Structure formats: C-alpha cells, structure tokens
Amino acid sequence: MLGGGAALAVIAGVLGILNGATSSESVSGYEDGGFQVSVQAPDSAVRVMKPAEFTVTATGANGQPVANADLRAVLYMPDMFCGLFEAEVTEISPGVYEVQGVPVMKGKWVAKLTLASDGNQGTFVQPFKVS
Question: Mind telling me which PROSITE patterns this protein's record contains (predicted)?
Fold first, then answer.
C-alpha cells in the first residue's frame, strides 16, 4: 500500500501525463512485489505510429538496483479493444531499463510493466496520451 506522500506523487504524475506535461513533470513512482519503480514518461508528445520511450528505474526492498530482471511491457488502450502491443525492453545500466513501443492510434494508452526478479513479481501501470 502506498503511503500518503507516495500516493500524491503517483496522482500528480498521472495528472501531469494526461495533461501533456514535460519530462520533468512526468515521473511516476510505484511499489509492488517488493520493488520500487519510477517511470519517466516520454520526453515529448507521443505521436501515432512513432516510438514512445519510457525510462524505468527499479530498486528492491533493500534500495539496491534490480539488475538483470525480467521486465516485460505491453501497450494497450484501456477504453478500446485495439490489441496488445509488446514493447522492447533494454537494460541500459543496472536497474535502469528503456522501454520502447509504438502506439497505433490517438487517445489514452497504458504501458503495463511486469517486473520479475529473484522469485518476486510486481505489476505497474503507466498511463500516457497519444496525439
């Protein structure tokens, strides 16, 4: 369960993303499965059929980076059925992952991230808008 400050940070991050915030305003934090994850939304407006890039930073309960984890990402539109689009994930440094996927139409999208490491698993949902 998120503490009061963390919950406010998540809400602020989601509202910033939905309102077209810049990258400095669009970092969201999540906790699940013993992981703490921050997600930085794309630096610029996401466009149809163009790569949407997210940076995901993962730490464990001990505060150490979660390196060499199994991070999977799927993009989809929660209000429509237009399919699930698997995104590419690359670890760019220990516990820091680049996620890149291509949304196929305008509207509200979600990047669903599933992180697994050492028998633990967490799921994180990052909303974003495509124009």
Answer: FILAMIN_REPEAT
